[in-house]
Design a protein that fits this description.
The chain has about 350 residues and is an alpha+beta fold. It is built from eight helices and seven strands, in the order ααααβαββαββααββ. The structure holds adenosine-5'-diphosphate (ADP). Adenosine-5'-diphosphate binds next to helix 6 and helix 8.
């Protein structure tokens, strides 16, 4: 038997008490001809009295308790102290238990989110100190060697100072990149979005990395199906940085022989899809979901040798998203990678 409300509970108990009372009265007055009338009267009186009594007692007892639970949950939810009214003729306990369940669900989700953030923070601080340790130790090593006599040795003193300066440059680079990510995350980088020809920008970027590419025997081309300029809405300097980072990565992670990188443009309805495709070392699928995270690297030693901070793709993602657009990656190990992002086509 399901009892949903105090009213129902009172009804059931009054019914039982009424029947018992009616039967007992009937039995005790069996000598009388009107025993059945006494029984019925007793049943009705017992039913009515016990119905109101039980209902009143349950209501008083439950109301106080439930109101407290309800009030606590509501106050926790809304963060303010408020008075509440409960309608006892409804399924109060069912409502309260549903409220508690949703409340517990929300709290469990919040706790999970906080735990994830905490793990992320811990990992971030670990990564950061690890990244800074390498240049700091190298600077420290050179300075100590200079102090311990190297300073007077003209064959090494300048060389050691230059190497120490390189370590300082690396640290500055990491800090500057992190600073930029922080500014993007707090929405503190105003974008200067205007109508520009992206093909011109792509040519400029290719010219600026030409030397590095030919040094690594990598061929860099722009694939175009048309000769017209393509106008998009962008912050020219920032999108220049996106293309530079993507092209630099494509060069750094190219294969020893026969490397080639292609920049492609595809017009879609309102957007332009820009792809930077290489036939380099690629990566297996498991790395793709985390690739745009700060300090995430597939091959740590290769990245550091190439001067990478592990922050390039995180910056790229922030810039593209600040334009209200998205970036994606496809990659196959030993075959190559393609990074693609969109920009709004100018009217
Ligand atoms: P890094 O400074 O290490 O290059 P990024 O954020 O630019 O940092 O890239 C993160 C990681 O993604 C790199 O360490 C590398 O393992 C991988 N990666 C990026 N671009 C490519 C690419 N074109 N081909 C293969 N791996 C890449």
């Amino acid at each position: 038997m399901r009892i949903n409300s105090p009213k129902q509970a009172a009804l059931y108990s009054a019914f039982i008490i009424g029947i018992v009372s009616g039967c007992l009265t009937g039995a005790f007055s069996s000598s009388n001809d009107l025993w059945w009338a006494y029984g019925v009267i007793s049943l009705v009186i017992a039913f009515v009295v016990s119905y109101f009594l039980v209902f009143y007692l349950i209501e008083r007892f439950l109301y106080g308790k439930i109101k407290l639970i309800y009030k606590n949950i509501l106050n926790l939810k809304t963060q303010k102290d408020q008075d509440i009214k409960i309608n006892m003729s409804t399924d109060v306990l069912g409502t309260v238990s549903a409220e508690v369940e949703t409340w517990a669900d929300v709290k469990t989700r919040e706790i999970k989110q906080l735990k994830d953030q905490e793990a992320f923070r811990r990992e971030f601080i670990g990564n950061l100190s690890h990244e800074l340790k390498t240049p700091i130790f190298s600077i420290q090593g050179y300075i100590l060697t200079l102090l311990e006599g190297g300073l007077d040795d003209p064959t090494v003193n300048k060389e050691f100072l230059m190497r120490a300066a390189k370590g300082v440059d690396r640290m500055t680079h990491i800090i500057e990149d992190l600073d930029m990510i922080n500014k993007f995350e707090s929405g503190n980088i105003p974008l200067d979005i205007r109508k520009y020809n992206i093909v011109d920008l792509a040519k400029e970027i290719i010219d600026s990395v030409e030397y590095k590419a030919s040094d690594r025997n990598v061929e860099l081309t722009i694939k175009r199906n048309e000769d017209r300029p393509i106008y998009v809405m962008m912050d020219r300097q920032r999108i220049g940085q996106v293309l530079t980072n993507l092209v630099n990565n494509a060069i750094n992670y190219s294969k020893e022989e026969g490397g080639s990188i292609e920049l492609r443009f595809y017009r879609m309805d309102n957007a332009l899809l820009i792809e930077v495709a290489d036939n380099g070392i690629g990566m297996s699928e498991e790395h793709l979901p985390r690739l745009f995270e700060r300090f995430y690297r597939v091959d740590r030693s290769r990245s550091r040798n190439a001067g990478g901070t592990g922050l390039g793709l995180a910056i790229v993602k922030h810039i593209v998203e600040a334009h209200g657009q998205t970036i994606n990656v496809r990659s196959t190990k030993d075959i190559g990678s393609t990074f693609s992002f969109t920009l709004e086509l100018a009217k």
